[in-house]
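Write out this protein's structure.
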Amino acid sequence: MKISALNESGQPVDWWFMYKVPQLGKGAGNDAATGYEYVYYDSKIDGDPDPRNRNVTKSPFVINSGKGALNETLESVFKNFKNPPKSTGWILYNDEMPESTNRKDDGSKGHTKGVIAYDTDSKTAYWLLHSWPKFIDPGAAEDPTPKYGQTYLCLSLDLATASKIAEQMLHHQEPQVYYSHTPADLPLTDPLYLLTQPLDPKPQGDGDTINLKTIGNMPFSVIAKNKEWNKDFWNDLVGPTLKDDMDDETWIRGPIPPMADSDGIHKTFDIKYVNLGFMGAHWAWPETHDHAKWGVTIHEQYVCIGDINRMISQRKRGGGTIAFQNKILWQGLSKAGLVLAPPGHSRDEAHDVIAKTHHRHNEAPPKAAVTAAPKKAVSKKAAPAKAAPKKAAPKKAVAPKKAAAPEKATAPKKAAAPKKAAPKKK
C-alpha cells in the first residue's frame, strides 16, 4: 500500500498546509465561522505553470464534512484501522489524548501532536504535524472542539526519512504516543518501533536540527528540543538556527520569553492578530482565539509549522517545528499575521510598535536572579545577556496582564463515540 499526503480531491501530493479558523460570529468585514472552515495550499498548486493560480485560498470543504485534504489523507490509512494491511503501520501522538483512551495525560512528555503513517512494502510514509488537542481518534463520531484556530502540515516521505524523524523524536520531541500499530516485518531496532515503547525518562538535554527532503525532494528541517534542554524553543533555537528575525503565532497563557534571541542579533515578535482576508477568506481574530503554532522569518522566506508555544512554561516540555522555504505560503502568512502595519505605515514601523508594547513583567526572571548567591552580591551589572534589551521593553509601555491558564484547561471535554462507518479522523 502506498502512503502519501492526499490533496482536496484525494490525489497524492508532496505536501499540503491547512489553517483552520476558530469559531467566529459575524461582524463588520468578518464572516461567521463554525470553526471547521479552513484555508489551503499544496505542492500541486505551488507547481502550477500559471503563477496567477498559486494562491493560498479558502477551501470549499469543512473538516467535519468528511471531505477535503485532511479527511482524504487520514481516511486512506484509517478507513480500515481495525483490520489494516499487514505492511501498514502508524503512530498517533498528542499531549492531550482523545477522551476514548481513558488515560491521564503525562505532563512530562512532549508538547507535540501528530501522526506518522507508513508502509513497509511500498517504503512510503507521511507525517502530519498539527496543533489540535485530542486529535485524531479513529472511529470517533465527532471532531474535537472547533473553538480555536489550528494549523496542519502533511509531508509525503520515504520510509527511511520517517525513521529518521522517529529517531529524533525519541530523544527530543518525546511524544505521548496513545495509539500505534506496528507491522510484523518492521525490525525491532527501527526507531518507528522504538518510538512506541517507553522512552528514556532522562535523556541528555539537547536542541537539535535535522535536514531532510520530502519524497518529491522539497528540503525541510525539523527543529526540536527536549525538556531537559530547559531553554526557550523559539528564541534560543529556531531564530538562531534560521538566522533571522521571526513573527510567531502560538498559544500564550502565561509568562513569555524576552523578545531578543539568544544569539544577541535577532528578535522574535508575537503576532497579535490573524487576518485571512489577503487569502480571499473574510475571517479575522485575535491571538487569544488561536491555538496554532506557526512562524515566518522576516527576510528569508522560511515558514515554520510546529506544535510548541512561545511561553516560559514550555521550556519544560519537548516539541518542535518543521521549517521550509516557500515563497507563496510565506507571503500569505506574513500578510495574515498582524504585526503588519496599519495603512500608511511600513512593516518595520509595525515591529517597532510591537517592541514598544512588549512588557517585561510578562517575561520570566533572569536566571541569575535565582542563583544561590547572597542577594547583596547581586548587582545590576550581573544581569545575564539573555535579558531583553531595554529598547524592547520601555517601562511606560505597560500592557494589561493576561490571566495565566494552562493550555489543557481550555479544551472542553467531550465523549468520543465509536462509529462503525469509515472513521472520522480524530
